[in-house]
Amino acid sequence: MDETAETGEIRGTAQGTAPVPLSVLDLVTVGAGRTATDALRTSVEIARLAESRGFHRYWVAEHHSMPGVASSSPAVILAHLAAHTDRVRLGSGGVMLPNHAPLVIAEQFGTLEAMAPGRIDLGLGRAPGTDGATAAALRRTQRMGEGADDFPEQLAELTRFLDDDFPDGHPYARIHAVPGPVQSTSPGGVQSPHRPPVWLLGSSGFSARLAGALGLPFAFAHHFSAQNTIPALDLYRESFRPSAVLDAPYALIGVSALAADEEKEARRQVLAAALSMVRLRTGRPGLVPTPEEAEACEFSSMEREFVGSWNANVIHGTADQVRAGLDDLQKRTGADELMITGNAHGGDVRLRSYELIADAYGLPKEQGAQV
To answer: What is the value of pTM for the model shown?
Structure first.
């Protein structure tokens, strides 16, 4: 594996006046009255916009059994996005490793790498991305702690499959993830110099410490675990040991941010997204409600408290307000990259938000871009 090439694939370059590279996290949200087809079409539009405006990467996250989130199959979605883009990095934010056999992930992402050489990231999480019952159905086991506890071993196995370097005598020494490096050792074989960089994702300290110890890039879920952001990043940096992948820590954070042409409209949109979270947290997951439904909702005192707390961590308002909020967050955390997720009922609202943020930072406009 070309170590220099992989390091270059990890580290982005800030565009315009942005303090660090900006990227996109897509949950492929489905609003009330919309279909998964509508949501996936929006994902293509946003990916094209991200590419044309200089966003560094576009990730999709694995979730299950949630009607309002159509991203249960990241590899399938990424293949679709790869067919509609040319340059933007595409990846998982993330694939939940305990839900899958490491060989299957290596095969899926080897295939994606063959489709979009040098553009694929493999972000891995240790949570199920769903409730316990759904996780049991995915994993075919009731021992839910098993996968998370075995995460370092699963990660090591996956890395061996990606690099095709199990030692002689290992039970998997003669098993190869294809597409993958084994093809270069076959007669007449030529192998791509690229291998999807592995990222570790987390919302607490476990993955932060592991990513640091292994010298891997780290992505922290600030968008739903804001209180743990700075402690986790500090732990990552303190634990970091230089590796063939990175010579210094590299951390991005996922950030909820929504820009609108008017501040009032941004507040309406984030209220609807917060109502969706209220329903999810109380065991009533559904489609993302409209702003009108959210405004008419009679929240209990506990729900109002949750909405206030949730939206306090969503940077929203006009483009200038969102830019100021992102700048402040980056300064406070020292994040090397900001990955923005904009959740709203309508795809047009999400698309407009990314456009406004790009304009606020003066990101380049590709001539003749189709967005």
So the answer is: 0.93
